[in-house]
């Protein structure tokens, strides 16, 4: 496989190898890809946790009778409009 890097990224890879932390550019790229995968999993988990908290709070409000009657399509359209 052949990849193209910007000059800045190529310099970054070369600096990592020159630092002695990595034996070659392939090791740097593999480590970067592993880090990216870990980061994506953590971001997904954080979003999922936030959604669970929101759902839990909403369920608690509904159980306490703190909810509004409304048209779900209108509510979703309003939320979509606020998001932009």
TrEMBL record:
GO BP term, pick one = regulation of DNA-templated transcription
Which InterPro entries does the entry mention?
ParD, ParD_sf, Ribbon_hlx_hlx
Name of the protein in question: Addiction module antidote protein, CC2985 family
Q: Which NCBIfam families match?
A: antidote_CC2985
Pfam families according to UniProt: ParD_antitoxin (PF03693)
Q: Which family does it belong to?
A: Belongs to the ParD antitoxin family.
Its taxonomic placement starts with: Bacteria, Pseudomonadati, Thermodesulfobacteriota, Desulfovibrionia, Desulfovibrionales
Keywords in alphabetical order, please.
Toxin-antitoxin system
Q: Where are the transmembrane segments?
A: none
